[in-house]
Amino acid sequence: MIAPVLPTYARAPVAFEKGEGPWLFDGTGERYLDFGAGIAVCALGHAHPRLVAALEGQARRLWHTSNLYGIPGQQELAERLVEASFADTVFFTNSGLEAMECAIKMARKYHSHNGNPERWRIVTFEGAFHGRSLATIAAAGQEKLVKGFGPMPEGFDHVPFGDHDALRAAIGDETAAILIEPVQGEGGIRPVPYQCLRGLRALCDEHGILLIHDEIQCGMGRTGKLFAHEWAETGAPDILASAKGIGGGFPLGACLATERAASGMTAGSHGSTYGGNPLAMAVGNAVMAELTAPGFMDHVVEMAGLLRQRLAELADTYPDLIEEVRGEGLMLGIRVRGEGTNGALVNAARERRLLLVPAGDNVVRILPPLVIEAEHVNRAVDTLGDALSSLRASASVAAK
C-alpha cells in the first residue's frame, strides 16, 4: 500500500519539531547541529528573531492579493536586490525551479524580441542541477533525473564541465545563452574558477548571446559575497536565478536581470499567482536587511576560513578517507574515497548529532547557517572527525 505522502524521498530516520540558530531539536528534545541548513536554505539559522517578527507582523495584516495588484514589499525587495547587484529588474517566484523557468523563458524571448527567434538553444554543463520540472531536468541532462519521464523538451546542449573546446564547439547559430552554476551544488561542490567566469562573460559577448547564472544554492551570501560570481569581479551574468537563502526558510525565489536581457518580458509574457506575495516579501526584506548589514559578509568570510582550515586538518589526519576539500565560503565539500562512502559519512555524522548533506561525485556537502560562530565550527569538525574515525575502524574490521 502506498504511503499517504508520495514516497519520492529517501528520508533519514529523524524528524524535527523545533529549531534555534544552528540547532535542531527532535521530538525527544535531542539536539542536532545543523550544518546542512535545509540544503543551504536557512541562511540565518532557525527561528531567527528578525524573520519571525517580520512574518508574524505581516501575517496579522495581509497574506495574499495576487499580482493583479501592487505589492509594496515587492518594490522594496526589488530595489534592495537591484542596488546590491548587477541587475536592473527582478521577477519574484516561489522557488528556485520557477526562477530558472523564468530565466530560460527570458533568454529565449530576448532573442525573439530582437528579431532572432531561431536563437533558442541553451548550452549547459554536465553535473549541473537546475530543478525538477521537465525543462530544468532536460537542462541538466543527468540520466538519474530524466530516466522514465519520456521525451525531454528540446533546446539544451550539454558539454563536459571545464571543457573549453567543447563549449566553444557547442555554440552555434541557434544558441541563445550559456547557463552555469558558479559553484555546482548537487554536482559535488565544484567551483568554476574566477578566470573561467570572466571568460564565459567574454565568450557570450563575442557571440551575442546571454549568460545565465544559477545561484540558487551558491548565492545570497553563501560564499561571502551576496552572489558568488562577484568574486570574479567582471564575470556578471545577464540573468540570475536566486532562491533558497533569499527566503531564509520561507518559499521564495527571484529571477534577476539586466534591462537589456529583460527587454522582451512585457505585460502578459510571464506571471505567477503566489510569486512575491506579501508574506514572502516581508521575510525576504528581513533577510536582505541582515545580509547587507555592516560586517555580515566579513563574518561569513571569517567563519569560512576557520572551517576550511579545520577541514584541511581532518584531511591530513584521514588521507585514507578524504581525497579533497573543495568549495567556496560556507559552501564546502569533502570528496571521500570509496564509492558510497559519502552516504556512510553523512549517516555516521547524523548518529553523532551533526547534520550534513550528500552530493554527487562522492561528496559530503557542508552548508551551515551563515550565522555560525567559531564554537559551532569546532564542534562540527570534532564530531566529523569522530565519524571518520568510526568509518576507518569499520573498514579495518571489514578488511580482516
Describe the structure.
- The chain has 400 residues and is α/β, with parallel strands linked by helices.
- The chain folds into two domains: 16-34 and 295-399, Aspartate Aminotransferase, domain 1, CATH 3.90.1150.10; 49-291, Aspartate Aminotransferase, domain 2 (3-Layer(aba) Sandwich).
- It is 38% helix and 18% strand.
- The protein has twelve helices and 17 strands.
- The chain has helices spanning 37-40, 49-59, 72-84, 96-113, 134-140, 143-146, 164-170, 194-207, 278-291, 296-317, 341-351, 374-399, and strands at 16-20, 23-26, 31-34, 89-93, 121-125, 156-159, 175-180, 183-184, 190-191, 210-214, 239-242, 253-257, 322-328, 331-336, 354-355, 357-359, 363-366.
- The strands form four sheets. Strands 4-12-11-10-7-5-6 form a seven-stranded mixed beta sheet, with helices on both faces. Strands 1-2-3-15 form a four-stranded mixed beta sheet. Strands 13-14-17-16 form a four-stranded antiparallel beta sheet, covered by helices on one side.
- Helix 10 (296-317) runs parallel beside helix 12 (374-399) and helix 11 crosses helix 12.
- It is globular and about 65 Å long.
List keywords for this structure.
7-stranded mixed beta sheet, 2 domains, 12 helices, 4-stranded mixed beta sheet, alpha/beta, 38% helix, globular, 17 strands, Aspartate Aminotransferase, domain 1, 400 residues, Aspartate Aminotransferase, domain 2
Topology (SSEs and partners):
Layout: E1 16-20, E2 23-26, E3 31-34, H1 37-40, H2 49-59, H3 72-84, E4 89-93, H4 96-113, E5 121-125, H5 134-140, H6 143-146, E6 156-159, H7 164-170, E7 175-180, E8 183-184, E9 190-191, H8 194-207, E10 210-214, E11 239-242, E12 253-257, H9 278-291, H10 296-317, E13 322-328, E14 331-336, H11 341-351, E15 354-355, E16 357-359, E17 363-366, H12 374-399
Parallel strand pairs: 3-15, 5-6, 5-7, 7-10, 10-11
Antiparallel strand pairs: 1-2, 2-3, 4-12, 8-9, 11-12, 13-14, 14-17, 16-17
Helix pairs in contact: 2-9, 3-9, 10-12, 11-12
